[in-house]
Amino acid sequence: MSAKNQPAGVSQGEHLVLDEAGLNAAKRSLDQGAVTPSYGPWREDIIKLLNDALATELVCVLRYKRHHFTAKGLASPKIAEEFMVHALEETAHADQVAERIVQLGGEPDFSPGTLLARSHADYDESSDLKAMIKTNLIAERVAIEAYSQMIALIGDKDSSTRRMLEGILSQEQEHAEELSDWLTA
Predict the structure, then answer these.
(1) pLDDT tens digits, residue range 109-157?
(2) Cα–Cα–Cα angle for 168, 101, 66, nearest 5°?
(3) Helices and strands in the chain: count of H runs, count of E runs
(4) What residue numbers bound the domain in which 128 lies?
């Protein structure tokens, strides 16, 4: 097989070579923006995973905001303030995910009618502060698991999406640690 016919990243002797056909294909289909042939058959699957993540983030925003406005008790002012901080961070996650979906040539699904069905996390109307913390911790743990699985599934198929998800995962882990500390305080 000649170097020109080698798949990207495959060694020819001791040299790595790029896929010339892929480079030439990137010169066409300019209407696809950043989406090049290297996305292969996984682009639609990644968009679906991201739309489910978007639904999860939006449900988390709604749950944290509800908890912010309804938290009561001695420790509630500080915890309610942190619920709003988490809500704003989850909003930023949702924005990042929606932007990435568009970059991949998809459409972010903000449909209120299907948010709960697509979300990995649950909405909650608890009025007890400890129940709120526990519910949010469960949701963060679910998000951590979902993002960890998505990162593993995407692997090297889309490094930009993987890096974005790794950043979000790191913040979700911080949220979970904070919530866990509140439960034991």
Answers:
(1) 999 999 999 999 999 999 899 999 999 999 999 999 999 999 999 998 8
(2) 55
(3) 6, 2
(4) 41-184
